[in-house]
Design goal:
By secondary structure, the protein is an alpha/beta fold. The protein is built from 5 helices and 7 strands; from the N terminus they run ααβαβββαβαββ. The chain has helices at 13-30, 59-73, 85-93, 149-162, 176-183, and strands at residues 77-82, 99-105, 117-119, 137-142, 163-172, 186-187, 202-206. Keywords: Cytoplasm, Methyltransferase, Transferase.
């Protein structure tokens, strides 16, 4: 007789333990009642960590950038989010849409997302898994964690390695010249907002005809 459990995806015990621990921490932090259920992809299911220089976008901004990425990637497109977890989480909310997405992120809490998570340290811009082929993403969305030329320059190496061409960069307005120099991107009219106001004016930059103008 065939085993009925055959087609149920099995998590490894390690993944399950990690998910469970993550879930419990969340519940304690939010004081959530279990009865409300839990959406692992919702914004806020992982809280921002300022020590990692993480600042989540506002819900509107994350949605807007996610929509732009899907349009830019096209049908069956591949999207890479480099240090832009709130956009990644928005993309995951649109589950079942015709695109795939990877998140390159320093914060290992995002490993709960399984194979889509790639540990990423901008200091080692090309230290990437072998299965991440060069120029295999239709669009790369990146938000370098620090407003420094060094950080932008190194993140730019990663972006250029991953993208087939399209780049959507979010960084401070002060980085406009550097962004043009390292990535050939121009500032858009769209102004990204964060869920907590940042001291630095933030802008989006693209190198293709986007819907953000």
């Amino acid at each position: 007789k065939m085993d009925d459990d055959d087609d149920i995806p099995q998590f490894s015990s390690h993944t399950l333990a990690a998910l469970q621990e993550f879930y419990l921490e969340q519940q304690q932090r939010e004081g959530m009642k279990t009865s409300q259920g839990f959406n692992q992809y919702s914004i806020g299911s992982i809280e921002e960590d300022w020590q990692l220089s993480q600042f989540w976008y506002s819900d509107e901004t994350a949605s807007c950038l996610a929509k732009e990425a899907v349009l830019a990637a096209g049908k069956g497109g591949r999207i890479a989010c480099v240090s832009a977890p709130s956009v990644y989480q928005k993309l995951k909310e649109q589950d079942g849409e015709d695109f795939s997405v990877c998140i390159l992120e320093y914060d290992r809490r995002f490993s709960v997302y399984g194979e889509e998570f790639i540990f990423y340290d901008y200091n080692y811009p090309l230290d990437l898994p072998e299965n991440l082929l060069p120029h295999s993403f239709d669009i790369v969305i990146a938000d370098p964690p620090y407003l420094s030329e060094e950080c932008l320059q190194k993140t730019a190496e990663t972006i250029k390695y991953l993208t087939k061409g399209k780049i959507l960069l979010c960084t401070g307005a002060v980085m406009e010249d550097q962004a043009a120099k390292h990535l050939g991107v121009k500032m858009c009219k769209f102004i990204p907002k964060h869920s907590r106001n940042l001291a630095n004016e933030f802008r989006c930059y693209v190198n293709y005809a986007s819907g953000l103008d």
